[in-house]
Predict the structure.
Amino acid sequence: MNALYDKAVDASTFASPSDAGDVASDSEVRPRRAAMRSLSMHAAAEEQMVFLVDDDPGFLNSLAGLLDSVGLKVKIFVSAAELLASKLPEVVSCLVLDVRMPRLSGFGLQTELAKASNSIPIIFMTGYGDVPMSVRAMKGGAVDFLIKPFRDQDMLDAVMTALERDRKRRATERQLADVRSRLETLTPRELEVMALVTAGLMNKQIAGELGVQEITIKGHRGRVMQKMGARSLAELVKIAEALGVNRQSLRDFSEA
């Protein structure tokens, strides 16, 4: 049944189940760092980590110290190849990545991660940036593109944005996995009814198309709503769209 619902979905699709130099002054940065530390403490129950990749160990240690100062866990890699060879923990995370590195560049790593369907948010940094380079990074889905030396606060802001993006992505994936498992509980007939109901057909029309009594369709429709956890037809339509359940998908599935 995977062919029916192997589709990406936006975070707003489902309802919540529970309905090098820092040019800023210390007085400007410290309050925001304190706020970020508070955010990190609020996320204590939800582990999060920042992965740093740069071929300059001294710069890496300095950047790691900055992130540690606001309570963030950090893991350092001195090359893109080292990161690719590592098994990254399945936690809310982001990647801070230098563009120019030996062997595999930052853009090369971005490409490899995309091939592996790894959508971890990326923040690029470089000492040799230009407009075409930044455009390429952002088109590839990067959260930000920072030119060294950057303000500490700019990096901290970018990291918090990236972590929040990853947090939302993971929540959406959990919700999608849940509705996929619910979809698998539907009988073939219930799946047909779901596709036809969400296509806008009335019970009487569906009954005529399937050659059954209208009361039978009402029963199937009620069970579909219950099994899929949909509180309204509008919500069921959103779920069907997210999972790729429609009349064409049913025909494709039956012909497979």
Summary: Strands lie at 48-53, 73-77, 92-98, 122-126, 144-147. The two ends are 10 Å apart (CA to CA). Residues 1-12, 15-31, 40-45 have pLDDT under 50 and may be disordered. The chain has two domains: 20-174, 185-255.
